[in-house]
């Protein structure tokens, strides 16, 4: 069965998009069929696979998530092939900035994305649908979580990395009133520098949080990530032997194993 996994955090700079992109690439490279959905108006997930000109072409045309939602259409017809085997994407649009208003006028607005995804889920074409959520807690973020089976919270190992995490947990609880099956799969710690004291503080704080799994494979700071972004490629493709590429590969395996155990 197709599993829908969202990557969300209401704090910007958490490594959310990079984690979604890199885990998606690693899952596809290992043989899983993966669909990425760029749910953020900043287009960063789309830019992880296409250069700026192509990403803007998608954003300004009709082949993007906003166009599908605006038309009330099924998402099947908005899928774009990437250059990588087993890996497709539904691009975003800068017009997603107005999606909160658009949803406000809709009937059963919290379930619009779930309905749009139904055909893809029922088809069983993909093993995983990975959604990059925006760094906000509104109706659109709720749509993403209502449509998801699991949520992963990327958390930056920094002094402000845990800021707002309590709000995120409260938001998940409110989503469960509509989608009681939603499971918090775990916390992925990113941008790690073990020489810094705040990394230890971050890990200690997370360990004190009851009933929250922290993935054992955390992601170290690595310049390869920035170079991959500059070249519009996932880091696993840009430099397969880089530290972050290997770590994201291990994290993807850990995520798969965790889903199998649920």
Cα radius of gyration in angstroms: 17 Å
SSE succession: EHEHHHEEHHEHEHEHHHH
What overall form do the CA principal axes indicate?
globular
Strand line-up in the sheet with most strands: 3-4-2-5-1-6-7
CATH class: Alpha Beta
- Give the proportion of residues in helices: 40-55%
Structural class of the secondary elements?
Answer: alpha/beta
From the structure provided, what is the oligomeric state, counting identical versus distinct chains?
A: single chain
CATH architecture: 3-Layer(aba) Sandwich
Into which percentage range does the β-strand content fall?
5-15%
Stretches with pLDDT under 50, minimum 5 residues? none
First-last Cα distance:
13 Å
Which fold name corresponds to the CATH topology?
Rossmann fold
Q: What is the count of structural domains?
A: 1
Number of helices: 12
Largest sheet: 7 strands, mixed
Per DSSP E runs of 2 or more residues, the count of β-strands stands at: 7
Give an overview of the whole structure.
This protein has 262 residues and is of the alpha/beta class. The chain has twelve helices and seven strands. The mean pLDDT is 92.
